């Protein structure tokens, strides 16, 4: 009997070991997006960047990202070690995996390999801070849990808890491990991690997509590892990571001792009561002192912060003569476009940096000091890849100038609406160049910019004028939200104004009619913008407006009739309609008449990035028409359904 048990446990250990070896086999991907030759500059740069990462002794947290070279020969590389291994083991893993990857992918410009304890990837394209949840590979134990439902009820909340912990990590470490006891006295151990260059939302999104794979492909399995370029998830019914990584902080309370009986016990209780009373009084005094000084400190910090903001803004001031020279005295040849706010000019500073200069018109509502100062103060403190970057400003005499980074592909409306500008800087009809993948990338980027404005920035920003002409596109067609002259900074979730500022057609009715605005106002505008991107049509000049039908009502009618693809731009190349229909669904959720039913920006990003999230049934959008003078309350978009 003893020998039988010994044989059983020996076999069990062997099985677990074999499974661990299976996971430790080195999955890798060699991309077909570009090749190099063995004696090329790219190969030299690749060898340099890989060697620099594995030999870098200054980094002790296991995350390396580096670039070598320029233009088409630039190599961007990332290496990430598991958070529970030591520095020497990490560098050894990076070195070995780098060597193997060069053997497996001898001439591909983009490749990735996953070892058990580290990951190495490189590319000739920009990969830092970019969420890439695909390709997603699954390695799982073929054995099911004895009680699949009970096992899942423990596993799912464990992964959700660790997802939040990992995503909330720092810019050098997004890693979490933990365990929970399941049925049959089994303990589930799990490890989740992201490349720490991702922000919290991207990390959470990547891990949520990976978790969805656990419960779709491999429901009830006793263990598995799920890997992608941006995140890694693994769980087992045995401990596969260093237990120290999971160890909780030691308790601050001393162990309790059993009470004594009789007089000694009464004496002890009396002593304890006196001590507790004294400690309680002391705690109250300390709390009072803390509250007093925290108020003093907060006021001091606010003063320092105000001084810092003023100092920061002042450092962005440009001399008018400098900008005049950069734009060749605001020549027509440098004019990029214009509108009610004024004109925009291309310029070049003496350091050869290209800029875009918004010269605000004297009679523009936005051009006056309040809106001008508002945009300078807000945008100067906002930093996100999906927001246009303010380089500086100029305020001399009657001149009000805003200096931005130059974004070469102009605004989104020039693409999706097929506009041709008569300006010297002409943009031909490029609508046909926007396939669905490109349009989806733009939609997702705008949503991420809104998440930053509404939730993740130092400030709470409501844009109030989100529209196609205020979305700029950089050289990689990444969207950047611009024009913050009408934005509002709020500490609460909503506000009210008597002065309606924005663009009719993108405004929700509660703002256009009553002046009530909130983050859900921006969500409504985003929904309109999403439907415009899908359809290639402007909501303010929709072809059917003559018969009382606007874009949102037409999209609603097509959805109700089960023909949402009738909304889709005929010039757009589409490989799969499933994702496209889902985006139309999300757009309709955003333009619902009931404010509470509209999703948040963070929810929109999750719905866009995860196909496993079930979408609610969209409610009716507000069928309101907008005339050139504002909201026409007597006219409604007809509901033909």
From TrEMBL:
**InterPro entries xrefs:** GNK2, Prot_kinase_dom, Protein_kinase_ATP_BS, Ser-Thr/Tyr_kinase_cat_dom, Ser/Thr_kinase_AS
Question: Which regions span the lipid bilayer?
Answer: 272-293
Q: Which reaction does it catalyse?
A: L-seryl-[protein] + ATP = O-phospho-L-seryl-[protein] + ADP + H(+); L-threonyl-[protein] + ATP = O-phospho-L-threonyl-[protein] + ADP + H(+)
Topology in the membrane? Single-pass membrane protein
The protein's UniProt keywords, in alphabetical order, are: ATP-binding, Glycoprotein, Kinase, Membrane, Nucleotide-binding, Phosphoprotein, Receptor, Repeat, Serine/threonine-protein kinase, Signal, Transferase, Transmembrane, Transmembrane helix
Main localization is membrane
> A Gene Ontology biological process annotation?
response to oxidative stress
* Binding locations of ATP: 358
Q: Which domain of life is it from?
A: Eukaryota
Q: Note whether Signal occurs among the keywords.
A: yes
- Which intervals hold domain Gnk2-homologous? 24-127, 133-240
Q: Which residues form the signal peptide?
A: 1-24
One cellular component term (GO) for this entry is: plasma membrane
Q: Localized where? A: Membrane
One Pfam family assigned to this protein is: Stress-antifung
- Please list the GO terms describing molecular function: ATP binding; protein serine/threonine kinase activity
Q: Protein kinase domain location, by residue?
A: 330-624
> What protein name is recorded for this chain?
Uncharacterized protein
Question: What's the source species for this entry?
Answer: Carya illinoinensis
């Amino acid at each position: 009997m003893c020998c039988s048990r010994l044989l059983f446990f020996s076999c069990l250990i062997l099985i677990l070991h074999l499974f661990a070896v299976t996971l430790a086999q080195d999955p890798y991907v060699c991309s077909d997006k570009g090749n190099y030759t063995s004696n090329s500059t790219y190969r030299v740069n690749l060898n340099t960047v890989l060697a620099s990462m594995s030999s870098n002794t200054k980094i002790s947290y296991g995350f390396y990202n580096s670039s070598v070279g320029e233009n088409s020969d630039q190599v961007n590389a990332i290496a990430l070690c598991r958070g529970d291994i030591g520095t020497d083991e990490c560098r050894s893993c990076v070195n070995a995996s780098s060597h193997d990857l060069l053997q497996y992918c001898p001439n591909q410009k983009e490749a990735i390999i996953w070892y058990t304890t580290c990951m190495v990837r490189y590319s000739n394209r920009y990969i830092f801070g970019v969420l890439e949840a695909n390709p997603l590979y699954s390695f799982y134990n073929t054995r099911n849990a004895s009680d699949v439902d009970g096992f899942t009820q423990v596993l799912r909340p464990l992964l959700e808890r660790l997802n939040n912990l990992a995503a909330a990590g720092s810019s050098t470490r997004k890693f979490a491990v933990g365990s929970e006891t399941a049925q049959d006295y089994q303990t589930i151990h799990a490890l989740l991690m992201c490349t720490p260059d991702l922000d919290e939302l991207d990390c959470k999104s990547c891990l949520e997509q990976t978790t969805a794979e656990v419960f779709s492909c491999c429901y009830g399995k006793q263990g598995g590892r799920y890997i992608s370029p941006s995140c890694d998830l693994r769980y087992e019914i045995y401990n596969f990571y260093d237990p120290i990584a999971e160890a909780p902080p030691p308790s601050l309370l001393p162990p309790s001792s059993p009470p004594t009986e009789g007089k000694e016990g009464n004496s002890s209780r009396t002593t304890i009561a006196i001590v507790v009373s004294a400690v309680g009084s002391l705690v109250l005094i300390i709390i009072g002192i803390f509250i007093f000084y925290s108020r003093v400190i907060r006021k001091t910090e606010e003063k320092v912060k105000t001084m810092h903001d003023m100092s920061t803004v002042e450092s962005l001031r440009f001399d008018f003569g400098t900008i005049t020279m950069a734009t060749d005295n605001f020549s027509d040849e440098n004019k990029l476009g214009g509108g009610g706010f004024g004109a925009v000019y291309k310029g070049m500073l003496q350091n050869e940096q290209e800029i875009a200069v918004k010269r605000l018109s004297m009679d523009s509502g936005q051009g006056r000091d309040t809106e001008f100062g508002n945009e300078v103060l807000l945008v100067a403190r906002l930093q996100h890849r999906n927001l246009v970057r303010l380089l500086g400003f100029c305020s001399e005499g009657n001149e009000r100038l805003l200096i931005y980074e130059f974004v070469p592909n102009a605004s989104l409306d020039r693409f999706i609406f097929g506009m041709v500008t008569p300006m010297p800087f002409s943009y031909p009809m490029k609508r046909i160049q926007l396939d669905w993948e490109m349009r989806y990338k733009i939609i997702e980027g705008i949503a991420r910019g809104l998440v930053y404005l509404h939730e993740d920035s130092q400030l709470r920003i409501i844009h109030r004028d989100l529209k196609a002409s205020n979305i700029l596109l950089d050289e990689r067609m990444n969207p950047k939200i611009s024009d913050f002259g009408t934005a509002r900074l709020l500490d609460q979730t909503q506000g009210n104004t008597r002065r309606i500022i924005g663009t009719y057609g993108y405004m929700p009715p509660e703002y256009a009619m009553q002046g009530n605005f909130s983050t859900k106002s921006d969500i409504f505008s985003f929904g309109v913008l999403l439907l415009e991107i899908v359809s290639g049509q402007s909501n303010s000049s929709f072809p059917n407006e003559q018969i009382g039908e606007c874009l949102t009502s037409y999209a609603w009618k097509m959805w109700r009739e089960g023909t949402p693809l009738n909304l889709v731009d005929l010039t757009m190349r589409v490989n799969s309609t499933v994702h496209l229909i889902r985006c139309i669904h999300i757009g309709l959720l955003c333009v619902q008449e009931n404010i509470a039913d509209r999703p948040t920006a963070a929810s929109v990003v999750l719905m866009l990035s995860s196909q496993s999230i079930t979408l609610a049934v969209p409610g009716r959008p507000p069928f309101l028409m907008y005339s050139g003078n504002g909201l026409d309350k007597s006219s409604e978009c007809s509901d033909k359904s």
